[in-house]
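Lab manual, section 2.4: Encoding a predicted structure.

Procedure: take the sequence of the chain (738 residues), apply the prediction step described in section 2.3, and record the output as structure tokens. A sample record is shown.
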Amino acid sequence: METFEVLQEVGFRFNARFGQLIGRNLISNPIVAVSELVKNAYDADAGNISIIFENLKSGTSSLKIVDDGDGMSLSDLTNKWMMVGTDNKLRETYTTKGRRKLGEKGIGRFSVERLAKRLTIKTSQKGNAHALMIFINWDEYENTSLEFSDIKHKIIKISSQSDSCGTELLLEDLRDSWDETMLFNVRKELNLIRPININKVSHKKYEFKGTDVKIKLISYDYKTKTGTINSTFMEYAQAHLYGEIDSSGSGIVRVMIKSNISMSKEVINETYLFSPEDIDSSCGPVTYEAFVFLKDQRLYKSLDIDRTIFKDLLESYSGIKIYRDGFRILPFGDADNDWLELNAKRTSSPEHRIATTNTIGIVYITRDENPGLQDVLSRENMYDTHEFNSLKQFVNIAFEKYTNLQLSARKKAQKKQLDEGKAVLNNAEKSVKTFFNQVNTLQQKLTQTKEEKNSQQQAEKIVSIGNELSTLMNTAETSLNTVKYAYTYYRKQENFKSREMQIYRNIATLGISAAMFGHEALHQTTDAKVISGQIVDDFEFITEDLIKLKALVEELQKDILLIDEKADFFRNYLRREKQDRARYVNLYKALKTIAKQHEKAFRAINALIRIKEKVDINLLNTWGYEGDFDTIFTNLITNAYKALKKGKEDKYLIFELNNIDGNIEIIAFNNGQSIEEQIRPKIFEPLFSTYSDGTGLGLTIIQDTIIGYKGTIHLCPEYPETKFKLVIPQKNEPKEYE
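Recorded output:
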């Protein structure tokens, strides 16, 4: 038998820098850290919480968080606050006021280490004539020669009023530079830390303890707006999605779409029931409600809310957010957080897909009923568990149902529209034939009258002709009205004119849509030309009223030509030889062609496109695919167009082309709406856009295309002018092509 000797017993020890590891290294976001401290005040049954920033522009910056909660005793301070990983909130899960305690991991206090270098705590309990104070200098924990427990802090007893209670955290020498933007984001998070009150418009009624807690944000250096959101705003939603899994595992999903955005032009209201066998209900019990707003101002003309405020509220509060026991879990629902992948699905298949930017949604869970849904230690995400994936799948059901309902309604509407269109054309055709038949009959009677020798019979035929003429004029009027209706009907159809504008917006990211539209528009314009031409030929000789019809038809023909021109652009844009066959491409000529195709659009907003070549244009040839360079130039021009639309006077987009040491250099700059400095680092990120109707893919496509040619693109530092520098190495024909 092998012998052994026990040398000693050991346990885990912590270096002093352990505080930094679970402070600033664990909690990366300062706003999350502030949120955690607010939750601690909530757990102390506070009714009022003040967050006060001072000396942000000069001096020693500080943050003070003051609450009127229960305060801490000496035992609380030593055995709970100073005990890392304490389990007191696991054992005592509810406060005296019946609130579900939020912090259970016992490390939330290290949010203060994330925020500042020094901390002073002052706390008192009601009925005590004294308060307790403790000072912590987090720099002491930078000493790696010490252990975590070696560093001690004195607790001081000071006099205090016996009727006061609560805790004050004074954080000094803040680690972050808090400016107006960060304070706005804090205010936004504080507004969202509790769920929006949607009880006036929701399917269920939601109640949470502590909804009367008042949170005040104060800064003496910057103004802090107190914008709030309420159910009045939510009543303007164009669609309402609801889902619930109950304690038995059964589910229900409801989708309501208002008539003004419904493809059926009628209210759509559908309910779907699921048994526990139909769905993965492991995430439940859970409830969610989402409200969809379309960013089309025509839908909100009659609102009793300012449309600018409407837009600001939507931009500030959109997203699908998760709330546990009435408190938000970050970062779900943030502008850059697409945890349901709604935006990704919309990019790959945009038709009737809901985006996070026009949706305000709330998912309700609890700590006790949803143990499998746990946020990570940093409080900035949730563990990727089976239950979490179940939650994503269930919430997505309503969004998929919305899309399917709209697509189905559109299909029915298109069939109805096609049937109506055929009926309209048939009526017009019948009316024209009736008129022609009556004209022929009248002509025959006139001939017979002229040949009649008997005056009495001739007079009788003249009376008959008068009756025929009266009937003919009535028929002419009816025929004219029928043709006018047919024309008006087709002018109103989305497929007739406005569809190409929608596809034009998509062309920047979905190139295949351009080819699709080109072929569709080719058939539409050919048919429309035949119809309009037939109308002009058939009705040219009718009464003077038809001059008006002819003018309308000529206008129709002009519109058709415009569609045809744009259809030609789209068809040309994705010509097979441009995409499939590499060759020498002159970038100056390619750019000039694309720019010319956008001249009218720029002229309409009083802007000019100028192209300056700084070398002989023959030095601007390179080997590649013409379609690739068309993509680069089209996206640059489209982005500039959007910026210039919001510009003022003397608007311009200028391209400068040069060849420097075998690299073709393209400078593109415009004086439209500037790209703000704080968002400049994000502009090449997929799906990031500052425009409400933007896809956020234009610059990403440019960058990916240029990287394929081993080139570069970057945004120059000039401000407020927007200037991009593109460098594309000049290439010769590969040997395999020779």
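Check your result against the sample. The first helix runs from residue 18 to 21.
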